[in-house]
Amino acid sequence: MSMLERIKVFYRGSEFAYYLCTPLRELYYFFFFYLIPDKVAIERKFYKKMGYKLDWNNLKTLSEKLQWLKLYDRKPWYSDCVDKLKVRDYISKKLGTNKYLIPLYFETVDWREVKPENMPNEPFVIKCNHDNSSYVIVHEKNNIDWKKLRYFYRRRLKGRNFFWNNREWPYKNVKPKIMVEKFLCSDSSDYKLQEYKFHCFEGEIKFVSYYEYGYDGKKRHRFLDANYIPMDDMYSMNVNLELLPNYEKIAEIDELTQVVKQLAKNFEYYIRVDVYYVDGQIYVGELTFFDSAGYEKISPESWNMELGSYLHLPIDRK
Tens of pLDDT along 274-293? Predict the structure, then answer.
């Protein structure tokens, strides 16, 4: 391990080092994030991720058009939709019921409250409401290093606003919290969990990213069209997973479709509705405005263009 790598490991694992470096970290954020205009930051990251420059006057692909939405589609109520706690109220109101919500055990703004006595006596998931990739699955709370976990969530709550990562505006006004939800796992002998990511354009489902979590530890995927028919395996959206050979519609497929359409219909441009299916029960996970921040490697390019054609921006109508 190089000296630089050792320093990184020490910094990430040491609470002392993290807070000792606070002034330097804030200076870094100031010069490399806060001073840079949103449009410039998006252009730079798009070029770095996609390998070519954005032409704001000729946006054709989904990847390109999502960048425009980051800058110009900024409705205040979007913040409630990306907040993993507040979106629960949004979902309940739109569907007229809370039966599609994942059971919530605990929430707090204080990282010190992340301790076993506040947790259920069954498997659960801890995560933040304002970011992604902060989840921790706990099967047995007596086997957890709670001090280390509290340190992890302390940094998550006190870190840089998630908006600055990719300039996804809806995240800018989300107040950071920690939440604890039920761990979803099927009693099926075939798989632990089914996950559907519905890609909706102007209120209509165009395709579905489908995933199965197997008991063998593998996560398999398949792209489905709006009728749940498996699409050609040539299509790719940065998915490096084993291809699921077959897909069978669930008995509740009509209910699932209606839930998604009801949630998607008020979104003028694009929304991804994430849904879990467990033993006959449908759970809405979250709403996503910018799939992978618009930096996914979508192939073939013709498919990226086709997806872009579903999304009609005001500048397209001029």
Answer: 999 999 999 999 999 999 99
Q: Which residue has the higher pLDDT, 16 or 278?
A: 278
**At CA 203, angle to CA 93 and CA 75, rounded to 5?**
65
Asked if residue 153 has pLDDT above 80, the reply is yes
